[in-house]
Fold this sequence. Notes:
The protein is mostly helical. It has 14 helices and no strands. Helix 3 runs parallel beside helix 5. The protein is globular. The C terminus is likely disordered.
Amino acid sequence: MITRSSLKHLRIPFSLFLLPVYFFALALTPNLNGERMLWVFLSLHLFLYPSSNGYNSYYDKDEESIGGIKNPPKVTPDLYWLSLVFFAIALILAFKISFAFSSMLLVYGLVSMAYSHPSIRLKKYPWLSWLIAGLFQGYFTFAMAYAGLSDFGWNIFLKPHVMIPGLLTSLMLWGNYPLTQVYQHREDARRGDMTLSRYLGIKGTFGFSALIFALTGAGFVWFFLDRNQEYYFWVYLGAMAPIILYFLLWFNFVRINPEKYANYSWTMGMNSISALILNAFFFYYFLENTQILQVLAY
């Protein structure tokens, strides 16, 4: 029996926060096909990411707020099996594109499982978990989506035209990742997990993220100018302005009272505004760089 608790722990709407990576890959992929677009989207956002969310929630058994759920319900045993069923469906859908694409999802899923599984629990290691989470949710996911959308194999991972934008997405996530942990210090301490945010401290987390965000902005500016896309450089800066303002406002409040403002509501506000704006920007970038009507007709 599937409980409502388990369905909630899949956090399917939370996939919205990783959707910009898919849209960015979509904008740069040369061999678009409407059917592959659908299978890649469904396998990643409807099944792979929820599977990862559910599997990690099963082992974390959080009692306080987690990403996308302010008051998480008690974990039930069926969540473990439900997460594996979702994982299997993701692999099957990916196989409709190719064995290579399905194997990429398998690798992503296994690394994700290692994040919270007690025998490995990458989450205990601050720098390693930060590096792997950003690398796989950014660069690896970008290359995986790029490969699936155009039906390429593993060799695409080492192509410069994939590595560069992929690493830019990792930079975005490396900047945001510690912020997602900033309100969970007590919960993580209870489990003995030394996350990067706990290691850096609340104010240190914001300073570190500010540095990575600055590097990310510089990287994207270089990316667009190198492609002779000055117009998108300005659109990107305009899109980033509200996100930067929110971050600076939040940082200012945290400097005054860290315990009060480093909370779930402000974190989800940062995640939400970032996801909505970045999704809009990368989808617009996709529309501008792709003959969308031809793709859909095909």
